[in-house]
Design goal:
Largest interface: A-B, 50 and 51 residues
Protein name (chain B): C4-dicarboxylate ABC transporter permease
CATH topology of the largest domain in chain A: D-Maltodextrin-Binding Protein, domain 2
Largest sheet of chain B: 2 strands, antiparallel
Number of strands of chain B: 2
CATH superfamily of the largest domain in chain A: Bordetella uptake gene, domain 1
Largest sheet of chain A: 9 strands, mixed
Order of helices and strands of chain A: HEHEHEHEHEHEHEHEEHHH
Structural class of chain A: alpha/beta
Number of domains of chain B: 1
Strand content of chain A: 15-25%
Helix content of chain B: over 70%
Oligomer: heterodimer
Keywords (chain B): Membrane, Transmembrane, Transmembrane helix
CATH class of the largest domain in chain A: Alpha Beta
Number of helices of chain B: 22
Strand order of the largest sheet of chain B: 1-2
Distance between the termini of chain A: 35 Å
Radius of gyration of chain B: 22 Å
Structural class of chain B: mainly alpha
Chain lengths: ~325, ~500
């Protein structure tokens, strides 16, 4: 209820701001942004999150009409960067890049930071998890895998680490289907995929983009995608809904600001970053790199983060993978 | 054959050739500065390649990759501070050579061995890529575990003269590597509630402190004692005889380095130690190793450069990166809408064969630039000691900070420096510690993954590759023990 109210009032602010900009041009009372904006990326330079942030920042320099720099503050599964964004001055000039881990690490016992510590500006990406087996596997569908697991077969699923989103996504799928898998954590998706190709394990849970090269080469068989819609890069793979499993999960990325940032500043940021999101340059980049495009506005992203936080809390408690 | 023609056409182009040269120069710069790594330079320059043709962009990045792996040896030889983790094994004989007035020769050997190692690696890549990639896939967790156990026996053979101290040093390395979240269950170990410690100890600050800064501390001490020794640089020439004598070492080490590089997760850092150890094991006069044997430098340097081509093998054929640099190279390929994997060979032959040809040219360019540059690098030794070592200290602080912009890494570096200083004083070898830090996590996660996969049984130990490695491990330990005993008997 409260969120809906916020969303409605957010919309009103957006409309008013837009009218204001159109009617009065730069003479409007709100002069934000007049200084350089810094985007804090909690992951290393050169990685997927960093690349999306730099592309978005490059376009947003024009749409927001100010300089934008990207700084990488890495460590502790993103906690260092999330914390820096949450405790920055709430004036809109420090924007944090939030990834799905912000909704997980508190439950995992890694760091205290949660989505409660930040305000959403917009979500720009969602990559659903894909569950894949080797192309020489006897399992032709996710139903085959579930039936085998019900018969007591050991289904060993490689993930990019205990408590990683791809582990939790696979575990959620198993829980929904009422079976149990064995999880083998690797240092990232690539070695987990290699272990499936080498026949050491049966399956892997990773993003669609991460398995796409091996799928195209005919070495991996994707069985299900844990998202609402089929992926362009895996057009023949059914979604969880299509196979009757009520479970969607994956990695997402978005922008956040400190909690006390004023509504109008959040709205201005949302406006100009949305414009950057919709630009041809950004859309092209996301498409060629295989990143899923999902947009949520400030209010929607805020409530989405809260829902995810709730959901992960429940699941992680059940999986008993908390560090302490 | 048309693939080769397309590759030549793409690479033999002024812009591509210029980017190779530029890449090699940038690579040499970041490789020679401790703390700046090839991974970092490739990541920073990656966005610039988006605007270039795929082949041209790859030339720049491959140039950096090859140049950095070579240049790590320059400070390793001259000031005992490896510029990259892969140059840690180069210190073992490179620095003693330099102290004995043979710096020029050591640098020349390092350039030639790096270039030859790289070229051998590229030839193997071009000839055997798909088949070798199949071999890499057969390495599962059990195989990684036994491989790292086998590699850990290097500690024993490196410490024949001081076995107990070597084992203490190695164990210390394994302990340091245990700090932080464990690789399987993400449980914090030795973290004492600290967020920094639970993130784990970074390897590069340890390396910088242990070697470069510890050496600086020792030099300060000497300076206070009024001793300023300035070893001669010696000749830069490598006669035909010398090259002929180093040829078997270089060839063997190149192949070993390539194979270790092929395995995802193991690279030049391990490859150079493995090659060094095997060279020592099969060499006549192995007593000279560790005291400035040119074969030690040739082995380490050819292996670490050969590993670069090895790392590209699973990257290009399977889309699975062989190391952190090739992981970024995948980004450089996918941004152009291409996907690494078998279809890349048929779909974009100009890129695949362009990479083969271009990477070979990178090492040709490296040979020329390196040989021309040696006389410039050694000017470092002409810097008076009282300026040189403070500069090393400052660069070490900056380098450790630059890694993650984290002051904690500077603290780690300083603690490692103090540790390294006292270890040197006490006659504890440093290389075993480095090997422990590198191999500990691979061994542990390999073992635990193998146990999860087998459901708690040890049956994996009896499968062909792990069993072979187990036998080799036992033989290697027995040999080292035998040599240590005969060594102490003869000296007694």
């Amino acid at each position: 209820m409260g969120w809906r109210l916020l969303r409605v009032s957010g919309l009103a602010v957006a409309v008013v701001t837009l009218l204001g900009v159109v009617a009065c041009g730069p003479a409007g009372e709100d002069e934000f942004p007049s200084e350089q904006i810094e985007i804090i990326v909690p992951w290393a330079a050169g990685g997927g999150t960093d690349q999306t942030a730099r592309q978005l920042a490059a376009v947003a320099e024009e749409t927001c009409g100010t300089g934008i720099i990207v700084s990488n503050q890495t460590g502790s599964t993103g906690a260092v960067g999330f914390q820096a964004a949450a405790t920055a001055r709430p004036d809109g000039y420090t924007v944090g890049l939030a990834t799905v881990e912000i909704a997980m690490i508190n439950h995992l016992g890694v760091a205290p930071v949660t989505p409660e510590d930040v305000r959403g500006v917009m979500q720009y990406n969602f990559d659903p998890a894909a569950f894949s087996v080797g192309s020489d596997s006897p399992y032709e569908s996710i139903e085959d895998v579930i039936a085998a697991a019900e018969d007591g077969e050991d289904i060993r699923v490689g993930t990019s680490g205990t408590g990683s989103i791809w582990h939790v996504a696979a575990a959620g799928l198993a829980r929904e289907a009422g079976v149990e898998f064995t999880y083998v954590p690797f240092d990232g998706a690539a070695p987990a995929i290699a272990a499936v190709l080498g026949g050491q394990i049966e399956a892997t849970s990773a993003s669609g983009a991460e398995v796409a090269p091996q799928v195209e080469a005919g070495e991996l068989r994707p069985l299900v995608v844990m998202g609402e819609e089929r992926l362009d890069i895996l057009p023949d793979t059914p979604t969880t809904q299509e196979v009757g499993i009520d479970w969607e999960s994956g990695a997402w990325r978005g922008l956040v600001v400190p909690n006390d940032t004023p509504d109008d500043v959040v709205q201005t940021l949302n406006e100009c970053f949305r414009e950057a999101y919709e630009s041809e340059q950004f859309q092209d980049f996301m498409e060629t790199q295989g990143f899923g495009m999902v947009y949520r506005d400030a209010g929607e992203f805020e409530s989405y983060m809260d829902e995810e936080f709730e959901r992960f809390g429940e699941l992680i408690r059940e999986l008993d993978i908390r560090a302490e | 054959m048309s693939g080769w023609a397309a590759g030549f056409e793409a690479v033999l182009d002024p812009q591509a050739l210029f980017l190779i040269l530029a890449g090699v120069l940038v690579g040499i710069l970041v490789g020679a500065l401790p703390g700046l790594s090839a991974t970092m330079a490739v990541a920073v320059l990656l966005p610039f390649t988006f605007a270039l043709e795929p082949v041209d962009g790859m030339m720049l990045l491959l140039g950096i990759y090859g140049g950095a792996l070579y240049a790590g040896s320059i400070p390793a030889i001259l000031i005992r501070a490896p510029g990259t983790p892969s140059a840690a094994a180069t210190v073992l004989d490179g620095h003693p050579m330099s102290q004995r007035g043979r710096a020029g020769e050591a640098l020349s050997i390092s350039v030639v061995a790096s270039a030859v190692g790289g070229m051998v690696g590229v030839v193997f890549l071009a000839l055997f890529a798909p088949r070798v990639a199949e071999f890499a896939l057969r390495f599962g967790p059990a195989e990684y575990f036994m491989l790292s156990i086998f590699a850990l026996t290097i500690i024993a053979s490196l410490s024949e003269s001081a076995m107990v101290k070597g084992l203490i040093s190695g164990t210390l390395g394994l302990l340091i590597a245990m700090i932080g979240l464990d690789p399987i269950q993400a449980f914090p170990r030795f973290a004492f509630g600290s967020v920094e410690l639970s993130a784990g100890i970074q390897f590069i600050p340890i390396l910088i402190g242990l070697f470069g800064v510890a050496e600086a501390l020792r030099q300060f001490e000497r300076l206070r004692g009024g001793v300023e020794e300035r070893p001669a640089l010696g000749s830069f020439r490598l006669g035909f005889d010398r090259l002929k004598r180093l040829a078997p070492t270089t060839a063997g080490s190149s192949v070993l380095g390539f194979l270790v590089g092929v395995l995802p997760g193991t690279g030049g850092d391990i490859g150079s130690f493995v090659a060094y150890n095997e060279t020592k094991r099969f060499a006549r006069g192995e007593k000279n190793f560790g005291r400035g044997d040119p074969r030690g430098v040739a082995a380490a340097e050819s292996a670490n450069n050969a590993s670069t081509a090895g790392a590209l093998t699973p990257t290009l054929t399977l889309g699975i990166p062989g190391d952190s640099v090739s992981a970024i190279l995948i980004g450089a390929i996918t941004v152009h809408g291409l996907r690494p994997g078998p279809q890349l060979f048929t779909g974009s032959p100009e890129l695949v064969y362009g990479i083969f040809i271009g990477f070979f040219l990178v090492y040709t360019c490296l040979l020329v630039v390196g040989l021309l540059g040696i006389r410039l690098w050694v000017q470092l030794m002409r810097v008076p000691t009282r300026f040189l070592w403070p500069t090393v200290l400052v660069l070490s602080v900056v380098g450790s900070y630059a890694l993650r912009s984290n002051p904690f890494d500077v603290l780690v570096m300083l603690l490692a420096a103090v540790l390294g200083y006292f270890m040197m004083k006490g006659g504890y070898p440093l290389a075993p510690l480095v090997i422990g830090v590198i191999l500990g996590p691979i061994a542990e996660s390999g073992f635990r993954r193998a146990m999860i996969i087998s459901g708690g049984s040890f049956e994996w130990l009896l499968t062909p590759i792990p069993l072979t490695l187990l036998i080799l491990t036992l033989a290697s330990i027995a040999l080292a023990a035998l040599r240590a005993r005969s060594g102490s008997a003869s000296s007694a």
